[in-house]
Amino acid sequence: MIQAKEVRIIDEEKKQIGILPLSKALSIAGEKGLDLVEIAPQAVPPVCRIMDYGKFLYELHKKEHEAKKHQKQIQVKEIKFRPKISIHDYTFKMRHIQRFLDDGNKVRITIMLRGRERARPELAQQILDRVLEDTKDVAFLDGDIKRQSWSVSTLISPTKSGGKDAKAKNAQRGKKEVQGNRKKEDRSP
Q1: Closest CA to 77 of 127, 147, 146, 142
Q2: SS3 of residue 106 by DSSP
Q3: Interior CA angle at 138 toward 70 and 186, to 5°?
Q4: What CATH superfamily is the domain 76-165?
Q5: Which of 11, 22, 45, 173 has the fewest CB neighbours in a 10 Å radius?
Q6: Which residue has the higher pLDDT, 147 or 70?
Q7: What is the pTM of this model?
Q8: Cβ-proximal residues to 184 (8 Å cutoff; 6+ apart), any chain
Q9: Where are the domains of the chain?
């Protein structure tokens, strides 16, 4: 697959051999039972390395997988409200929004309108304003407010870019830690 007539050769111990014709480089790689892999095709002459190509692909895949594992994964969570929401339901949903934002996720807020509520979209706007006011310390409005005949929605993003990486997010908590959290919740009024 190598197109150049002459190539710069690097052996399996990463030592430079020199510039050789392609046929000579291929014969050296064949004698050692390895492959000739072009690493820098844009160089003049192109740089080729004598190595095991299968092992090279495996290590490349392993590096990509390791880099992906430590990336922060942002998800968009959605919370739906109704204009006639009770206080308890509102606070319950606000706790979920707070948790999602603390985890570094974006949250889509949707206020659903049904039946005669569609004639009064200002009710949905009031709920949305209340949610935005309650989350102004930890989140900001990300984009525009979208108004449709049946809903009003927007996207909010966390102000701090904390969050957890994929590994920490999926870590299992111990039984004692979960029970300890429950005891804290019971004590709080």
Answers
A1: 142
A2: strand
A3: 90
A4: Translation initiation factor 3 (IF-3), C-terminal domain (3.30.110.10)
A5: 173
A6: 147
A7: 0.50
A8: none
A9: 1-53, 76-165
Q: Provide the CATH topology of domain 1-53.
A: Ubiquitin-like (UB roll) (3.10.20)
Q: Give tens-digit pLDDT for 78-117.
A: 999 998 889 999 999 999 999 998 888 899 999 998 888 8
E strands, the chain, in order: 6-10, 16-21, 35-40, 47-51, 76-81, 106-112, 139-141, 146-147, 151-158
pLDDT over 70 percentage in the chain: 85
Task: Compute CA distances 37 → 15, 29, 53, 60, whole Å.
Answer: 15, 10, 7, 13
Residue 171 above 60 pLDDT?
Answer: no
The amino acid that residue 29 corresponds to is A
Q: Is 94 helix (H, G, I), strand (E, B) or coil?
A: helix
Please tell me the predicted confidence (pLDDT) of residue 92: 93
Q: What's the CA gap between 49 and 40, in Å, rounded?
A: 9
Q: Cα 13–9–15 angle (5° rounding)?
A: 30
